[in-house]
Amino acid sequence: MPAPPAPVRAPARERSWSVGTILLVLGAFGLVVAGLIFVTRSWEDIGLAGRTLILLGVTAVIGGLGVWVTRRPLRASAEAVWAVFLALLTLDFFAARHEGLVGLGSLDVAAGWVMWGMVAVVLSVGLSMWARPHLSVDLVVPAVAAGLAIAAAGAGAGAVGDDWDVAWRAVVALVVTGLLALWTRPAGSHVMTIVARVVVAAFYVVAYVASLVELAAHPSLDQAAAGGHGGPLLLMGLTSLAVAWLVPVVRIPAVALAVVAVSVLVVTPVLDAGPEEAAWSVVTLLAVVLAATASRGTGDWVRGARLGATPMVAAVGVVQLFLLGEALGTVGRVVDDPWRAAWDARLASVGGDHAAWAVPVVLAGLLVTTWFVLAWPELTSVRPWRSSVLGAALTLGVVTSVVALRLPVWGGVASLLAVAAVVAVLRLRGVWPVPTPVSLALVLFASALALASQGVSAVTWVAGGALLLGIAFVSAGEVLRLVHASAGTLLLVSGSAAVTALTDADDSAVPLVAVVVALALMAAVRLVVPEHPVAPAVEIAAGAALAVALVMPGSSGEIAVRWTIAGVGLIALSVTATSRRWLVWPGMSALVVAYVALIVDSGFSFVEAYTLPLGVAGLAAGVFAATKKPDTSTWAVLGPGLAVSLLPSVPQSLAAPTELRALLLGAGALAVLAIGIRLRWQAPFVAGTTILTLLVLFNIGPYANAAPRAVVIAAVSAVLLGVGITWEDRVRDGRRLVTYVRSMR
């Protein structure tokens, strides 16, 4: 037999506000409003007995109705009726206090709120516990009422002591709300627990902030201890521990706030008493203790301690940033006015004098704190960069310490270079894998600081450059090696120039030495270690230093010497290094610049003194290229040389066509034309023909201008007539000429 069809289930109805629910809410709201109107308008017209009966009667009726609908069970009706009951009961209580019934008249407003909060909490808890078996769920109204009652009692407790400090009153309010929140635990209502915790959390935040403000307003040790202004924050710390013990879900932030409270209590009086070095030391030592204590474990208590230690750890960083700002300010002052101090003069820190004893404490505290913080389990992802972080902390601490101690210029610079060298040695020997940029940063800061003294800067730049070049050649890591090599090269060239400046040599010797050292470095890496990865970086940096040295100001003669040495050096390097043949072109360009500078220094005023040797050199190179590459156009290889040799003389020759310059230019053009015809080179042929034609025309010009106009007209007409008669022959000859020129190379 076929199986009977499965019963069709009616689709679940979406829960929504029904008409009955809406009527219940409106009815409850109407009863509350009616009660308010009655109490405010008609209460005075009724005697004491009537008032008492009305209070008891209405409350009893609503309470009985609530019992009836709860037992039915009618969930929505129960919520509405019990809301009216609790609201009317609240009105009854305060009306009774106002009229002095049952001894409530002796209570002031604050005490009345406290008492009613306690009563309302008890009623809400009892109502929730009684209604649960009938409704099988927790009522929301008693939970909300309990939260409001706790808040009312806390507000009343905070207003009891009018002459107390705000922080003390906030703490009292928090204690009252906390105790009343504990009263809600027997109810076992999840909603009531959440509402109570939210209310207590709000009072906790207010009390904690008020305690911090109170201590900040009275920071001295006498005020905080004897005056009791630190008591609220101490109680908040103890309260935080109690909350952490009672409420595991908020244990981590509660422990953190307890640690912060204790830290603030310790640090604030020291900050107020001064000096700032004492505050730095206390903050640093406290950060070390907290970081070390919380460095192990994964429980909530330890995690909360680590979270609470974070502000003190951050404060150590803030202290270092403050000192770094002073250090950078000191360097800025040195750079603005370099080479003004003696080698043994003390560094003039922009932050003033600092107690020497605090500087090593702060430095050691920074390193120890960084060490323990990196051991925190939350920073496991940072563990692979542990050495880098420690190296950065070491760099920061050493730089700030050198400036804060106001050491002599040589002492501060020597300390930085020594630490850089030690770190590099430890890295290269595998003792401590600290990144090499630590040494780079220390050397660069030392180089900037050394600008205060000329002698110190010279030694520092040479030593620092040699150290960085050594690191670059023996370490690994392509990018970092290139950076170290470039910085080391520039420092070495600058240091060599600075050492020269210390002697009694002429000022022109400084850039000259820089040129020689730069060329020597380029030659050394290209000839000794051409295959080393850092060789190109050294060459580029040395080339940049060479360019700077070449453009330094000086007389024409000094410039000529510099550029000559550079040109000869580059050409020699191009000959000896096969892979650097292209250096011949910048070398020749340097010689050209040197020649021009020499001519300027010699005082020659005619343009051929500048252009003719360059043109001849260009023509020689072009002829060499033309013989080596027969297929190359003569315009490409000979055009530049012809232009430089002939064109600069054309304007003055045309202006004075009968002078010696025009004669010599014509002779040169004729020689160029002859070479073009003999070798069938197009560029010399066209250049010689053009210049000779211009010279002939400009030589005829004066005579044509002096002859009678009739003679000129007759001569031109005769020429035109002859051309016209022999036109076909001329066209044929022109075509042959064009073909001849085109056939040239």
From TrEMBL:
Protein name: DUF2157 domain-containing protein
Matches recorded under InterPro entries: SCO7613_C (IPR058062)
Keyword terms, alphabetized: Membrane, Transmembrane, Transmembrane helix
Coiled-coil ranges (or none): none
Keyword presence, Phosphoprotein: no
Organism of this sequence: Aeromicrobium endophyticum
Membrane-traversing stretches: 21-40, 46-68, 80-98, 110-127, 139-160, 166-183, 195-217, 229-247, 254-272, 278-295, 307-335, 355-376, 388-404, 410-428, 440-473, 479-502, 509-528, 534-552, 559-577, 583-600, 607-626, 632-650, 662-679, 685-703, 710-727
